[in-house]
Amino acid sequence: MFFNVNNIFVFPGVFGEDVVTVKEGDTVTLHTDINKKEHDKMLWYFEDTRIALINGHPNTSCLYDGEDGRFRDRLEVDYKTGSLIITDITTEHAGRYEAEIIRSESSGKRQSLNRNRKCDSTKITKKISISHDDTIKTFSMIVIGAPEMVKMEGDTVTLHTDITKKEHDKMLWYFEDTRIALINGHPNTSCLYDGEDGRFRDRLEVDYKTGSLIITDITTEHAGRYEAEIIRSESSGKRQSLNRNRRCDSRKITRRISISHDDTIKTFNMIVIGELRNVIYP
């Protein structure tokens, strides 16, 4: 038996381990299903590296970036239940997750966790041995990459967002983490970028109502990962930073910054097949 919640598949595994299957860009909640008391602490680990210390309240808890910063700005927790929420998942988040409870009666380990109240999100802490008083739940997460689009050189392709875009929302498009389009609802307040080495010059069009991106006369250098990001009209801080300079400089190179939880992402992986010559059929 398996459970399907919003395209997230959870398979009860052997030895108490659940196998969770998600797609890139999903948000997943890892439920502990553990009876957590008010003063219990919860530790979460990814591949034996601590990514969360939950102490009942945000001021005394800590969320960690993890090795190579892969969890930065992606973690949330339920402070009552100890459940872990991971947003905007990528394939680098696939692996083993473990929840460990430090019971309020386990005074020795609780004291060691209380020595330093300051949260250092960059700190790397490996898992130590587990006492018999602790309770564990383990998840193995499988992340399915974005679907691949196979195109021929010279094709025109439209990347449909399938996202509900409001009138005043902004849409950002990235190719391999470099911005190639800023869509602001009207051509006069939007910008199409040439991209690194000018590979997108005179090749981009957009649908200003839906935010979909059109790429004309594609070549093999346009193969790779495309991402659509919506800046909602309510996200005033990021909208103001995008509004500071109204002038469009198509040659400007802008790398993607961290994504806030208010933004919506869709990802495409495009494969471009070059022109076939001298094909011999048996």
UniProtKB/TrEMBL annotation:
Domain Immunoglobulin residue range list: 17-127, 146-245
Designated name of the protein: Immunoglobulin domain-containing protein
Lineage: Eukaryota, Metazoa, Chordata, Craniata, Vertebrata
